[in-house]
TrEMBL record:
Keywords: Signal. This is Small secreted protein. Residues 1-19 form the signal peptide. The keyword Signal applies. The keyword Signal applies.
Length: 172
């Protein structure tokens, strides 16, 4: 009987001691983070927005691939319909501009983030792609430029996938 009481007392004592050893679940870390400017929470929120923005940019790049494929079909035809070509070129340029806007918004969120340098690479590529698209004339001579653009759009998707991986480390 005495042994049972002793074991119960010891068990209760250990339970109380272990409860006291645990940190209080009072949001102390969150309060400390807020005191420091809420950097962890802000960085995580920005990283989530940036990851979503990069996904949007990848969607745009896939649309660019589709747009340039449409132009390639028109240019490869025996008798190029200039109105169709002009409309397809305008669509491609609009899509490229949409991608630039999304990337610019992403760059504003990328300070202190591993994707910052990758987004700068995307910016340079977008400027080149826009220049190439503006230079298309609707002739067979465009086919080399179109082939280059197809490779560049694929490379842009790869770069943005790397950018998203770099952002992922900031999402908790």
């Amino acid at each position: 009987m005495q042994l049972t009481k002793t074991l119960i007392t010891l068990t209760m004592g250990l339970t109380v001691a272990s409860a006291l050893a645990l940190p209080a679940a009072d949001g102390l870390e969150v309060r400390a983070d807020k005191k420091g400017g809420n950097n962890k929470a802000n960085n995580c929120a920005n990283a989530k927005k940036l990851a979503a923005g990069i996904d949007d940019n990848i969607k745009i790049q896939k649309q660019e691939q589709s747009n340039v494929a449409d132009i390639e079909k028109i240019v490869n035809s025996n008798n190029v319909d200039q109105k169709k070509f002009d409309a397809a070129k305008k669509t491609l340029l609009t899509t490229i501009d949409d991608g630039i806007k999304i990337r610019e918004a992403n760059q504003k969120l990328a300070d202190g983030n591993g994707a910052k340098d990758g987004l700068a690479t995307v910016a340079k590529a977008q400027a080149q792609e826009k220049s190439q698209a503006q230079g298309l004339k609707g002739t067979k001579a465009d086919l080399d430029t179109i082939a280059t653009m197809k490779k560049e759009f694929a490379g842009g998707i790869e770069q943005n996938q790397k950018n998203k991986e770099a952002v992922s480390s900031h999402i908790s």
